[in-house]
Amino acid sequence: MSFKYYCMNPISKAGIDRFKDNYEKTEQIEDADAVLVRSADMKELELPENLKAIARAGAGVNNIPLEKCAEKGIVVFNTPGANANGVKELVIAGMLLASRDIVGGIEWVVEQKDKEDIGKLAEKSKKKFAGCEISGKKLGVIGLGTIGVQVANTAIHLGMEVLGYDPFISVDAAWNLSRSIQHINDIEQIYRESDYITIHVPLNDHTKGMIDEKAISMMKDGVVLLNFARDAIVDENKVVEALKEGHIKKYVTDFANPIIAGVENTLITPHLGASTEESEDNCAIMAVKELKDFLQNGNIKNSVNFPSCDMGTCVAAGRVVITHKNIVNMIGQLTKVFADNKVNISDMLNKSKGEYAYSMFDVDGVVNENVLEQLRQIEGVSSVRAVK
To answer: Whole-angstrom Cα distance, residue 134 to residue 154?
Structure first.
């Protein structure tokens, strides 16, 4: 069985090279079984009927129409943790740059470059750029996913006291979190006590604008706020007001926009969080691995719109995978089609995620197109595919 893939953005060769002989790159998205994407906006894109999967080489998926994909049975993957170290390092750099006016000092030296007594001038002027150390300060981490955990653990090693907030922390994240980190159940404690606050939550209906006027008002005077998650999580108009009033000392963000660009006491990078060779390679490798396992075996790992399902490599005569609505008697209807066509099910797996579900059936015989079409005709079924 062969597959075609389409790249909406340049994707690292480290990932693309993992596609072997039965994979062909196409320049026409209409022909693609799978799409690889980074930041390209797919929300207004007409999704091809043949498209089976989209892999985002990164964590955020706000550029992909998740609901529309789910309705069509298109599985959307992301690559959580693949770029975590790159983002973590930039967050730590942001804290250091906000604590000591390194940028101002560098700019001053450039301005004085033609003066012969620049050394003496530097000794007289350096007080203007003096700052504080982060060791001994209190850091509040909002969101303890892979990036948040790495930032928190690194801050501990830098001598900071760390408060972590995440009501939905995963078991894996909890195991990886340093025992020195204080897990907070009330986010307002983060606002009240932290000298530095860093945000690491996904953008969704619950988190959009969560750092609002009320949250900012609870923060300590002189707080440093870091946002390497998404700009819409923060009400940046209120941040600008707080910066002008001196309530927020520095705002460090990776998202340039007209509201915040050029505002005094901001440090803004042009979305550099995952812009390292290592992060781009890691994301591409993980995205390709996810696509191949799904296309070849029907397994789902790290999908944002369908549940994780893994039955390994198929050793039975055939395997059929089905995306469908999470509704009553769906499994009964699916298994009836197999039974009516005298196809014996040797193993199966069904899992749901919200309104949608995914079913995998290993069978003792080859399933013909007639059986697949009968499955497709069941109300609530989005896609049916024989992977073997």
So the answer is: 12
